[in-house]
Amino acid sequence: MSQPLEELREKLDGINQQLLVLLNERAEVVRRIGEIKEKQGVPKFDPVREREMLEELAKRNPGPFKNAEVKHIFKEIFKASLNLQEEDHKRQLLVSRKKQPDNTVIDVNGTLIGGAAQVMIAGPCSVESYEQLRAVASALKDAGIKIMRGGAFKPRTSPYDFQGLGEEGLKMLKEVADEFGLSIISEIVHPGHIALAEKYIDIIQIGARNMQNFELLKAAGEASIPVLLKRGIAATLEEFIHAAEYIVVGGNSNVMLIERGIRTYEKWTRNTLDISAVPLLKQETHLPVLVDVSHSTGRKDILLPCAKAALAAGADGVMVEVHPEPQVALSDAAQQIDIPQFQTLWDGIKRSGLFTE
Ligand code: PEP
Ligand code: MN
């Protein structure tokens, strides 16, 4: 009595083996198709072709499986194949950790970003005057902070708002940075600004509004200095990573990513700090990942817990806006902290034990 059951089980094992071989053979064919599509730049998922294949299978289905079941099984096979193609695509991205398992560590005048230590970047939203810059630079120097931020080209929502001092602002940044021994990060908004950036500053910032300004990304790919790329206001992590890929494939491998909050329906913060972006970007890419606590929250009162959350999640650094007199700041007055508030924040971060200098 048990003999036929054993036989049938053996037969089933044999069929499983055959299915396994066929499924993997199929996967190899799908992979080859994926490579051709990759070269042609056409999408991997082709819903029309998928429907045709499912209809053809239903037509030829001898049973006993019902057509709906056959379609369901094959849809799962199609989905697994598509995932395989996407995995292959990720492996091909230069920014992918699958391509380069080791962290990219960026050397900015001796300060390493993306290594064992974290970095603090602080400074005003906009460059306004020498006095303003010197007040911040002096406080940063006293705090042992090496990188100062300040915007000279300001992408503003309204054309009537302060647009920044332009090249004059970059010159001021350089002068003050040299005086206090700091490195400078500043935003540029146009491919034609790369040469200016190379002349005056140490790190190019590409702002949230320009994350998908592809001509700017390509130009940054040709720059000789590192780039801090901000996450777009409504960008997915995949879009963010692909934006970084533009810069790296252009020849500049010194790219850092910064989460600066995304737009949601929440009104108590200016944007929503997506803390999950930090471990995901660290996992998917080998690039340094930072968090801008000022633009993500738009507030002054929750900077310390947000900075600690960022560091606990694995961020390589934190950026914050500091202004000697935030109440009269020409941009982002509501979120910039003054120098004593910055010192309190900095003490809190250091005391948290999450920041390695
Ligand atoms: C900034 O850093 O001053 C800025 C404009 O940020 P974002 O591009 O993230 O809005
Ligand atoms: Mn700002």
From TrEMBL:
Coiled coil: none annotated. Keywords: Transferase. SUPFAM superfamilies: Aldolase, Chorismate mutase II. PROSITE patterns: CHORISMATE_MUT_2 (PS51168). Gene3D superfamilies: Aldolase class I, Chorismate mutase. SMART domains: CM_2 (SM00830). Residues 1-89 form the Chorismate mutase domain. It comes from the Bacteria. PANTHER family: PHOSPHO-2-DEHYDRO-3-DEOXYHEPTONATE ALDOLASE, PROTEIN AROA(G). This is Bifunctional 3-deoxy-7-phosphoheptulonate synthase/chorismate mutase. It comes from Paenibacillus haidiansis.
